[in-house]
Amino acid sequence: MLPRLVRHRVDLWLNRLKWPVAFLAVLWTPLLCWAWVLLGYRIAGQPFSSLFFGAGFVLFFMAWKSILRYRSVWRWLMRAEHEATHLLFAALTAHPIIGWRDHLHQRRETSESSKESVHFIGEGNWLIQVAPYFFPTAAGILWFTALFIPLGFLGWTTIALGFATGFHVTSTILEIRADRDELGHLRWRFCWMFLPAANLLLLGCLLTFAQEGFSGIFHFLSDSWQPIRQLIQLFQWQSPSD
After folding, report:
1. What does the longest C-alpha to C-alpha distance in the chain come to?
2. CA-to-CA distance for 240 and 231, rounded, in angstroms?
3. 139 close to 165: Cβ distance less than 8 angstroms
4. Dist. CA 223–CA 165, nearest whole Å
5. What DSSP state is assigned to residue 46?
6. Most buried residue, 25, 63, 144, 219, by most Cβ within 10 Å?
7. Do the beta carbons of residue 12 and residue 125 sit within 8 Å?
8. What is the C-alpha to C-alpha distance for residues 207 and 199, in angstroms, rounded to an integer?
9. Residue 93 DSSP label
10. In sequence order, what are the beta bridge partners of 119?
């Protein structure tokens, strides 16, 4: 009874916050763009730090264009990451997982949505639906391992992180084209409001992590709020002192 109540409360509050989060994402988008500009300046000043990440990123796109897109196993891996992300966020929002259909053995002529491919207890929420379109699960696994294995000392792991990020970007583009019905359930207006900021945030964190480590993530987030801090300081400076 208690898990069901928790699950219901989580879904209730998340669904209530859907549009406020979307509006905040719209406001945050230009601030994140500014943080990307500052990150670009730091990379230009110290390009070697991001060299391995960029090499892995470019390597995936070259391999995808020449070989991987013709291999069904890679398309299955992309779909598997998509479904795994649904399941991850279902679990994080207190929804027990009860099933996952294997797309490798699914017939091509079927046109089932991911909602029919993953099964969990409860109604679900918008975060479960939208998660695969911004959260890089494959790269996130490598990111998590950095808690135990410092990526800065292992060039090949940073290359792998860039490769996984390229995998995620390509997968996201393909899934957006293929799953228009799934995104339609969320409403396209919401997707256009939320997804740009979410992708700028997560991809920026991955890139700045490759550049500066975990401290770089906090640097990136701090940069995104720099214009707001400067605006507040400007108003404080112009306000008359009594």
Report:
1. 75
2. 16
3. yes
4. 22
5. S
6. 25
7. no
8. 12
9. T
10. 99
